[in-house]
Amino acid sequence: MEPEKVFQMPFSNVYPLLVNKAVRKGRSQAEVDAVIAWLTGYDQATIHQLADSPIAYGAFFTQAPAMNPARKEIRGTICGLRVEAIQDPLMRDIRCLDKLVDALAKGKPLEKILGLDRSAAPAAGAEK
Q1: Phi, psi of 78 (to 5 degrees)
Q2: How far is residue 103 CA from its own chain's centroid?
Q3: CA 40 to chain centre
Q4: Could you give the CA distance from residue 31 to residue 42 in angstroms, rounded to a whole number?
Q5: Which residues contact 68 (CB under 8 A, 6 or more apart)?
Q6: What average pLDDT does this structure show over 4-30?
Q7: 61 pLDDT more than 50
Q8: Binning pLDDT at 50, 70 and 90, where does residue 124 land?
Q9: Do 44 and 50 touch, CB atoms closer than 8 A?
């Protein structure tokens, strides 16, 4: 899919996909919200408001109140692409969220994904 199409997709269409991916693997919507909040700076109430609004996925990221600077430490592959090799900053942020939700769905502890323990320095876990 072309980046422009991804950027224009409504967040209201993408958010349920992110939640369902995690919930199918035994995780909760609150954990997905925590990952989104960590990455973007939105609080849970705002995430839910935006999920019910017509905001585009690209605008969801470009209008984020406080993109986490630690997102630049996220490494690994998503959709066959190395996250750290993605040149477009907006697409990289989108893929970082994909990577974080993937880590959540794979059973990684939320604290480790978000770097809240001392050993978690890239947030989504580096592939060695």
Answers
A1: -145, 130
A2: 10
A3: 8
A4: 14
A5: 38, 39, 40, 41, 123
A6: 95
A7: yes
A8: low
A9: no
User: What's the CA gap between 73 and 92, in Å, rounded?
Assistant: 12
Residue 101 identity (one-letter amino acid): V
For residue 33, give Cα distances in angstroms to 14, 16, 62, 87: 13, 11, 18, 26
Contact of 57 with 47, CB cutoff 8 Å = no
- The CA–CA distances, whole Å, from 115 to 48, 97, 122, 125, 126 equal 24, 14, 7, 9, 12
Q: What angle do CA 118, 113, 6 make, to 5 degrees?
A: 145
Q: What mean pLDDT comes out for the span 89-94?
A: 95
Q: Report the amino acid identity of residue 46.
A: T
Which of 52, 81, 75, 78 lies closest to 124 in space, CA to CA?
75
81, two tokens: 């692409």
What residue type is assigned to position 47 of the chain?
Answer: I
